[in-house]
Amino acid sequence: MEHLNIGRRMNIKFFIVAFLSQLVVTQVWGQANTSALLPLPNHIEHIKGSKNFTLTPQTTIQTNLPEQSFVVGELQRILKEKMDQVVPVTDDTADGNSVIELYTDTSLEGKEHYILDISANRLTIKGATPNAIFCGLQTLDQLLLGDVCHTANKQIAPIRIDDAPRYDYRALMLDPARHFLPIEDIKFYIDQMARYKYNVLQLHLTDDQGWRIEIKAHPKLTEVGAFRNPQAGANGPDNGFYTQEQLKDLICYAADRNIEIVPELDIPGHTVAVLAAYPELGCTHTDTLPKLIGTTTELMLCANNEKVYAVYDDIIKEVAALFPSNRIHLGGDESVIEKNWNQCERCQALMKQLGYTEASQLMNYFFGKVLASVRQYGKQPILWCELDNIRMPAHEYLFDYPKDATLVTWRSGLTPKCIELTAKHGNPLIMAPGEYAYLDYPQWEGDLPEFNNWGMPITSLETCYQFDPGYGLPAAQQAHILGISGTLWGEAIKNINRVTYMTYPRGLALAEAGWTQMEYRNWDSFKERMYPNLTYLMKRGVSIRVPFEIAR
Ligand code: ACM
Ligand code: ZN
Questions:
Q1: pLDDT digits (tens, 9 = 90+) for 50-62
Q2: For ligand 1, what atom is nearest to the CA of residue 331?
Q3: How far is CA 221 from the centre of its chain?
Q4: What is the DSSP string of 258-285?
Q5: Sheet containing 2-4, strands listed edge to edge, beginning at the edge strand earlier in sequence
Q6: Best substitution site from 407, 410, 430, 491 to test ligand 1's pocket, by max atoms within 8 Å of Cβ?
Q7: Looking at ligand 1, which atom is closest to the CA of residue 489?
């Protein structure tokens, strides 16, 4: 048995590193059966001197999971797709036949930690949860994808993979508020996410351009807020919403694939769709402005209106009951306080009453009330980390987010400060820095020339791959980082083909940033492992961008 621990070798002096990385490339990545593994598992052992596993007509599946479990079906799907064989589940296996075992084993630590063990007559995947086994199955699928010749002969080379993620939170974010995405399209997106071991889909459900979730207590939110273009049909790109029944189905679809859906309701800015339905929730000076969804921006909910808090309590109550995730994202980004709370008689009166000198201080009051609802319904809040809007006069950062808020760093240039302040104040942090993780940025010069909301930033695939979610910091300074999120804002993204084009291949780089320890990551290896996955995605009808620049 040969044990390859790439990481330790990478830590020694430069010339040895250069030499050994060549060795590693040939020994590990040159192995056909690891050539499509993405994200790269954190521990791989190649087993010498053992025969290949062979799938025969007598091969059976044994499992302690219910036969009808999704995970068992996923194994059967993989074997049918890659080896063209329907393999039955049974308890009795005749001696000498090869067997595939899926076992939950609660002695293994970690919700997604799996062991995939392949030897002559036995292929075993075990983990403490079905989620872990699902992760192991994705690795098996990629082994079969990479090892074309063996797979064609119904053989699998012996290997042992003992793998667990670097981070527990590995998200992508979609924005159906800006352009509505039908449920079937989101399921299609989830299919690809699951393959690359993402485990969270954040849905940005409300914004200036649309309110996309049915709220039974306040039907006007969707009757008005879901129709940016009332003349057009009700299923996108400008119009549409998800009923609670549809969302339940989507949540289950995602959960089967080890993906949790985190809902986002963006407040107190990004709320034109709410204000179109209920104009009385805005600041007094905006009462006379038309609230055209998608065209009037920079409006906010009023901080001094009890009806705002009552309506959001109703909304959060329904959202909390619908989504099993223990998190609710409440936005908190890009509030245009000067143009709203600074100009509003009611907000100004509240400031006086509270002894505040800056309208931005009302943020604490506002979120104090809304987060009380989040807590009451048993959830934890997530907020975008804003250091710009909440700034003291002397340009000191005023950072007084409540301790139970998980923050997301996003503004380019501010991530080091966000990491430092969240560490100091004890807030968990999710990494979505604009420089690396904003998938709405063009991937190369001249790409998507017809629309670019951010000016001119470009996030190439290689830049994306350079993302270290720990920013190279000592362990103690990054211990509060929960994981990563790739963020795809939808202003310019009108359909699922554009969505996946912007996501892949960069989403493969981010998947590896979230899963694989830095010591095992390597750009050249990633490029090689990416190609079979791009072919695979194309065969599944996923629109991807060809990263021509890296091959020229
Ligand atoms: C953001 O990009 N407005 C969080
Ligand atoms: Zn106001």
A1: 899 999 999 999 9
A2: 4
A3: 26
A4: T-EEEEEEEESSS-HHHHHH-GGGB-GG
A5: 2-4, 44-46, 159-163, 114-118, 122-127, 99-104, 60-63
A6: 410
A7: 2
Domain with CATH 3.30.379.10 in the chain: 31-163
Which ranges of 359-492 does DSSP label H, i.e. alpha helix? 362-376, 415-425, 434-437, 461-465, 475-478
Helix (H) or strand (E) holding 450: none
Q: How far is the CA of 385 from the centre of ligand 1 (A)?
A: 9
Question: Which 3-state string (H, E, C) describes 317-331?
Answer: HHHHHHCCCCEEEEE
The reported pLDDT for the residue numbered 231 is: 87
pLDDT in tens, 341-397: 999 999 999 999 999 998 989 999 999 999 999 999 999 999 999 985 444 444 455
Q: Where in the chain is the domain with CATH 3.20.20.80?
A: 169-550
Calpha distance 509→436 (Å, rounded) = 10
Architecture of domain 31-163: 2-Layer Sandwich (3.30)
Mutate to test the pocket of ligand 1, among 206, 298, 438, 489 (most ligand atoms within 8 A of CB): 489
* Superfamily for the 169-550 domain: Glycosidases (3.20.20.80)
Indicate the helix (H) or strand (E) that contains 184: helix 183-195
Residue located nearest, by CA, to atom 3 of ligand 1: 333
Tell whether the model's pLDDT for residue 278 goes beyond 90: yes
